[in-house]
Design goal:
Elements: H1 5-16, E1 19-22, H2 23-31, H3 35-42, H4 44-59, E2 64-67, H5 76-85, E3 89-92, H6 95-102, H7 116-131, E4 136-139, H8 146-160
Parallel strand pairs: 1-2, 3-4
Helix pairs in contact: 1-8, 2-4, 3-4, 4-5
The structure holds adenosine-5'-diphosphate, shikimate-3-phosphate and magnesium ion (MG).
Subunit structure: Monomer.
Keywords: Amino-acid biosynthesis, Aromatic amino acid biosynthesis, ATP-binding, Cytoplasm, Kinase, Magnesium, Metal-binding, Nucleotide-binding, Transferase
Binding site for substrate: 24, 48, 70, 127
């Protein structure tokens, strides 16, 4: 949460000239409710089930940059779906960066706790080993803009070969 998946993903899709799809936005649209409302009304398990369905649908949709929510990659099913037809990218950011980006927002239900910074720290520690299974890792930097991050992702994908090879640049 706060790594920039949605913002950098949108910028990346513009630069690559492919569609941008955000799993949270798709879930919200289908439910006609916000993520916070879905968590409150239907619970996290319901949200995770929708997330898995949406990711499967988006991964089958053709060339695109797809941003997921921060919990999606914890699911082995989702990781397998993503690996089957895509390249996974972890936007790796430290707690300081993440916290500064999410601290003033109320849109993330998992951080509506008495001590959201500690909650975020706990989630990060728990999740990092699984995020490390991503095929490409791109590190955020405190003063690196959204555009700068998108360029860093492109560089990392190019260095790896494959997905951008057909781009002709
Ligand atoms: N590299 C960056 N530099 C400055 N602000 C950023 C950067 N990446 C993301 N942000 C901002 O941080 C907030 C969280 O980003 P977001 O894309 O929603 O993260 P995620 O989807 O990973 O939770 C947004 O307000 C976004 O505009
Ligand atoms: O980390 C998580 O479990 C979540 C991250 C959120 O997305 P972002 O990572 O885009 O904030 C959203 O899917 C939901 O609030 C749960
Ligand atoms: Mg997001």
């Amino acid at each position: 949460m706060g790594a920039g998946k949605t913002a950098v993903g949108a910028e990346l899709s513009r630069r690559l000239g492919v569609a941008f799809l955000d799993s949270d936005a798709q879930i919200e649209r289908a439910a006609n409710a916000t993520i916070a409302e879905i968590f409150a009304r239907d619970g996290e398990a319901f949200f995770r089930a929708r997330e898995t369905e949406v990711i499967a649908r988006l991964m089958a949709a053709g060339p695109a940059v797809i941003s997921t929510g921060g919990g999606a990659f914890l699911s082995e099913v989702n990781r397998a779906t993503i690996a089957a037809s895509g390249v996974s990218v972890w936007l790796k950011a430290d707690l300081e960066i993440l916290w500064n980006r999410v601290r003033h927002k109320t849109t993330r239900p998992l951080l509506r706790t008495a001590d959201p910074r500690a909650t975020l720290a706990g989630l990060l520690a728990q999740r990092e080993p699984l995020y490390g299974l991503a095929q490409v890792i791109v590190e955020a930097e405190p003063d690196l803009s959204i555009e700068g991050m998108a360029l860093k992702v492109i560089e990392a994908l190019r260095a790896r070969g494959g997905v951008l090879a057909a781009e002709g640049e």
